């Protein structure tokens, strides 16, 4: 019997803030594994608002978790090719990846949890997995109290305080479009994938560009 986490998101791109939440939640709740589930066609966003393809975002998540034995990736939503709600995804993950008696936790940010009533079948989702509300230091837990009167399974929401890191996927995309470096804002493998595939308007990595320039100079010589 294990304690298992599911961490879903658009991950456009995945960044160090996501990694810190996964690591600190895993430690706080003694999770054996955190399974990252990149969304293929996110149900709450327009297609045009998602900038990288499902395949690219999947590859970035795979690159991000590489080297951490507690982290894994499941491509169920990417392979579905359609919008999937968390209440659909969680039972599939449990069937694919779980064992009888496992205890399951769905990891997301406290701000997302505060909007839980807009999710599909939130009480049924809470029956499938306890929901971890990753909070920042100083977060007012009373911001979630409005859910208590409505949700039968409100006690299945577990706040976990995580280190606040002021990084956002939107900010990263904006920086890349301006030609600015995002090194150390994303895991190394994600940084390499972004530049190898020229995602988000990224230019060539500086060192890569210098190597190509030197090679071109030698060929001309």
Can you tell me the residue ranges where pLDDT is under 50 for at least 5 consecutive residues? Answer: 209-216
Work out the helix count. Answer: 9
* CATH level-3 fold name: Rossmann fold
Structural class based on helices, strands and sheet pairing: alpha/beta
Strand order of the largest sheet: 3-2-1-4-5-6
Number of strands: 6
> From the coordinates shown, what is the CATH architecture?
3-Layer(aba) Sandwich
CATH superfamily: HUPs
Please tell me what the overall shape is. globular
Q: Helix-strand pattern, N to C?
A: EHEHEHHEHHEEHHH
For the largest beta-sheet, the strand count, sense and barrel status come to: 6 strands, parallel
Distance between the termini: 65 Å
Helix content: 25-40%
Determine the mean pLDDT. Answer: 91
- Rg of Cα set: 19 Å
Overall domain count? 1
CATH level-1 class: Alpha Beta
The proportion of residues in beta strands is 15-25%
Which helices and strands appear, and what pairs or packs with what?
Blueprint: E1 3-9, H1 16-29, E2 33-38, H2 54-65, E3 71-73, H3 76-80, H4 86-97, E4 103-109, H5 110-113, H6 122-128, E5 130-135, E6 157-161, H7 169-177, H8 188-196, H9 206-220
Parallel strand pairs: 1-2, 1-4, 2-3, 4-5, 5-6
Helix pairs in contact: 2-8, 4-6
């Amino acid at each position: 019997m294990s304690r298992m986490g599911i961490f879903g998101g658009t991950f456009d791109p995945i960044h160090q803030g996501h990694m810190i939440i996964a690591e600190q939640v895993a430690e706080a709740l003694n999770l054996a594994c955190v399974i990252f589930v990149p969304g293929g066609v996110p149900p709450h966003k327009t297609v045009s608002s998602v900038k990288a393809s499902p395949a690219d975002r999947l590859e970035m998540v795979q690159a991000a978790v590489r080297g951490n034995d507690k982290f894994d990736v499941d491509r169920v939503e990417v392979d579905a090719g359609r919008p999937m709600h968390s209440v659909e995804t969680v039972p599939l993950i449990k069937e694919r990846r779980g064992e009888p008696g496992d205890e399951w936790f769905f990891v997301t940010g406290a701000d997302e949890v505060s909007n839980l009533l807009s999710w599909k079948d939130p009480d049924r989702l809470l029956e499938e997995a306890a929901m971890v509300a990753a909070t920042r230091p100083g977060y007012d837990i009373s911001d979630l109290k409005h859910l208590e009167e409505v949700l039968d399974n409100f006690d299945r929401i577990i706040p976990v305080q995580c280190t606040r890191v002021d990084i956002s996927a939107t900010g990263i995309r904006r920086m890349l479009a301006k030609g600015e470096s995002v090194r150390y804002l994303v895991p190394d493998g994600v940084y390499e994938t972004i530049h190898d595939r020229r995602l988000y308007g990224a230019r060539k990595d500086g060192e890569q560009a210098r190597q190509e320039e030197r090679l071109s100079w030698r060929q001309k010589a």
